[in-house]
Amino acid sequence: MTLSSSLSSLLLSFKLFRLPLLLSFSLLLSLTQAQVPVSISSYAPYLNQRACVKDCLWRAGTTEDLIGAIGCSDPWVNECFCHSEAASSASSFVSSCVADKCNTAKTGNVPIITSALSVYNGYCSTNGFSIPTVASIKSFDGYLKQTECVQLCLWHSGQIEDDLMPNMGCGAPWDNSCLCDASRVADKGKAFLSTCVASRCATGSDGPVVTSALSVLGVYCSSAGLPVTALAFATSTTFTSLTTAITSGPTPTPTTGGPLIDGEPRPAESQATGLSTGAIVGIAVASVAVVLASLAAVALFIYKRREARNHTDTETHDLTDTPSPQPGEKVLSPLTQIFEKQTDQEVVEADQGIPVERYEMPGRERSEYAAELAS
Q1: Secondary element (H or E) of residue 368
Q2: How many whole angstroms separate alpha carbon 83 and alpha carbon 135?
Q3: pLDDT, tens digit, 9 for 90 and up, residues 304-352
Q4: Which of 1, 231, 235, 265 gets the most CB atoms within 10 Å of its CB?
Q5: Does this model's pTM top 0.70?
Q6: 3-state DSSP call for residue 128?
Q7: 8 three-state secondary structure
């Protein structure tokens, strides 16, 4: 037998046995994986939970925990505990169990329930069972900030026909992979959400309320790691700013035909005046400035008037201090009196033979002997 014929026979044998070998290997792999026992009780995030949460996820010696609730039986293995088809049942059980045992709310943004679901999903993912993440938009902060008419369009608990996911073609298990599917959102999701919000909230199909609802869906999907291209605008504008923006709009009038809830809050009281807050502040500041300027002008006028009055009183006082002249006495001006007094003094000093300095009017000599003055 030649080498070529031997190789041909070997190749033919491989082709004949290739399919059975692959099937056997796949079966062995699945059996090996299925036989891995559940070990969530030693999983670090599980150990960090409160006792009431631990009892819901895994409680030794009983079937009243999660693995029993989703229909698994002994042996307790990851293949059943983390089965993808059990995602919806697991989410419902964990939410109810944690709410009851930990004495907390069952709906809304409940951190302890969110943490418990995160532990379950994280454990399964770590062990190679990446189950679809259960849709939890109803506990998303952006969803909770919307008006009720918007919430009912995004997620209506207990209903499977009149909210977003059924109208996108999604069903149980209600997971993010369907809610945030780009093609489903583009083909059906946006149209349904726009129509539903416009009807329930009695507003326009392209108004700010619809924009806010679409933004909630976009931000939620992005936070879940499943950004939707059709809602790309939502990732650049948060639902909070959009929710704030719509408060300035008019209150919609509900249509007849059913109990509808207003889609928007009433406008702020400051808007009823027609003036913005900045304009009101500007007017107030200007008014205060005018009042202060007026007070300053009045104070300056009073000060000037008082100064003028004091000056007049001083001159009057100087004149009244001068003694009245006696009958026959010669009235002299103050300057003349000074010179006269000085002259009298000089006369006295001249009689004593003392040379003195004379004070005379300008143009005359200022010093002579007293004898010459006497003669």
Answers
A1: strand 367-368
A2: 16
A3: 777 777 666 555 545 455 555 555 555 554 444 444 444 555 545 555 5
A4: 231
A5: no
A6: coil
A7: helix
